[in-house]
């Protein structure tokens, strides 16, 4: 596809943004001579302009697709804003410019240049109507964007590309007390979600597979406490069995999570039984083979390729939407709780699992390790007795309790 080069502002009345990989900047906007550039003798990276410097920073996150996409988005937005809105390169931005940008994030104007038209939330990056924003950012998202950009500027300064970090002058705010998790389902709402899935239609083969998939996704997100990206990025062969010190077989699920860190999640008897149930629905042997590459969540038809996080999100939004309608059917007094379900997402199940584990007085150390909240120590391979205790406690106190066997 032909590139859409950005022309200098004085030669184009309303230039439109292009994704980083398609961006071509005039020399005056490239940052080759940015006013905040460090002396060439101090530079420790090969980048000669802002696009190359940003690419060098992003390359550090190539092993984490989700982090890379988030960081690229924020760097891309700022660079495009700098050249299109201010007419200056990223490496010439001042502290005052960044204060202006902070306000811009809360209301990207002119909207025709910056925001996707209509109700569309996403377009392919090569589409001519692509825009960097789907709408104004909430205060929390603005803060997160600035945190990411501060990391970018700090790294470029440390690398000797920039003379200083313009965001380092920002007013230091006292760190707020860590908020309690609120995006989770109460035990009653969780039962409603399970009842909704158990009542899904199964008249046709497609309906049976869809109902089985919804039940399995709900199960693995809840019993495993997994992130959506961990579900879509894990294969069936990640389940394995080993014997404990007493000779009992224990199943585990090996998951690679945030920061490319690997952890072992207890695969309880319930989880293994649900895995077997799900595989039988697809005509597969109940137990996966070692190294099996089938994705953890199978498509209804077609090749056995992994679902995207977006597809998994849509599955869960459908389930929560049906559960919300189930509550609304009880009467108007259920509207508030139905609204909670309607706003839930796949990540709510991770919070729900953690909350329910705590309610059942599962040792918080085990919850921490199940969820991968702390890095795995180099000695963890020797702590089999501690891991077995974690497995036993998780199996005893954390259950999904499906009432339907069919």
From TrEMBL:
The keyword Cell cycle is assigned to this record: yes
Pfam family, one: Phage_integrase
Domain Core-binding (CB): 48-157
UniProt keyword Cell division present: yes
Region (Disordered): 381-406
Organism of derivation: Cupriavidus oxalaticus
Entry keyword set: Cell cycle, Cell division, Chromosome partition, Cytoplasm, DNA integration, DNA recombination, DNA-binding
Name of the protein this chain belongs to: Integrase/recombinase
Domain of life, source organism: Bacteria
Basic and acidic residues: bias regions: 384-399
Residue ranges of domain Tyr recombinase in the record: 180-397
Chief location of this protein within or outside the cell: cytoplasm
UniProt record, GO biological process: cell division; chromosome segregation; DNA integration; DNA recombination
GO cellular component, one term: cytoplasm
Compartments where located: Cytoplasm
Listed GO MF terms: DNA binding
């Amino acid at each position: 596809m032909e590139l859409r080069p950005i022309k200098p502002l004085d030669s184009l009345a309303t230039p439109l943004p292009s994704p980083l990989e398609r961006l071509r900047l005039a020399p005056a906007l490239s940052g080759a001579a940015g006013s905040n550039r460090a002396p060439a003798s101090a530079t420790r990276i090969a980048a000669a302009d802002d696009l190359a410097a940003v690419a060098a920073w992003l390359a550090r996150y190539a092993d984490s697709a989700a982090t890379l996409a988030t960081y690229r988005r924020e760097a891309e937005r700022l660079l495009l804003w700098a050249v299109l809105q201010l007419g200056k390169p990223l490496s010439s931005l001042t502290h005052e410019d960044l204060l202006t940008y902070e306000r811009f994030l809360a209301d990207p104007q002119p909207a025709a240049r910056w925001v996707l038209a209509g109700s569309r939330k996403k377009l392919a990056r090569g589409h001519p109507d692509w825009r960097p924003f789907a709408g104004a950012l909430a205060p929390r998202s603005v803060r997160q964007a600035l945190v990411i950009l501060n990391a970018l500027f700090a790294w470029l300064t440390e690398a000797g590309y920039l003379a200083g970090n313009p965001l380092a002058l920002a007013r230091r705010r006292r760190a707020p007390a860590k908020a309690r998790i609120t995006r989770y389902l109460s035990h009653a709402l969780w039962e409603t979600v399970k009842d909704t899935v158990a009542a899904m239609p199964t008249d046709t083969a497609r309906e049976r597979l869809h109902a089985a998939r919804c039940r399995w996704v709900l199960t693995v997100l809840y019993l495993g406490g997994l992130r959506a990206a961990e579900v879509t990025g894990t294969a069936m062969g990640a389940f394995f069995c080993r014997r404990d010190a007493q000779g009992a077989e224990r199943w585990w699920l090996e998951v690679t999570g945030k920061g490319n860190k690997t952890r072992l999640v207890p695969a309880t008897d319930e989880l293994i039984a649900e895995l077997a149930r799900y595989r039988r629905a697809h005509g597969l042997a109940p137990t996966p083979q070692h190294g099996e590459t089938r994705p953890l969540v199978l498509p209804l038809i077609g090749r056995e390729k992994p679902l995207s996080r977006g597809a998994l999100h849509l599955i869960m939004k459908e389930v929560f939407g049906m559960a919300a309608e189930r509550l609304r059917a009880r009467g108007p007094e259920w509207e508030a709780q139905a609204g909670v379900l309607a706003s839930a997402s796949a990540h709510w199940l991770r919070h729900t699992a953690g909350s329910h584990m705590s309610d059942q007085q599962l040792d918080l150390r085990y919850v921490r390790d199940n969820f991968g909240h702390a890095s795995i120590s180099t000695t963890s391979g020797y702590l089999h007795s501690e891991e077995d205790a974690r497995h036993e406690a998780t199996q005893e106190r954390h259950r999904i309790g499906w009432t339907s066997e069919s």
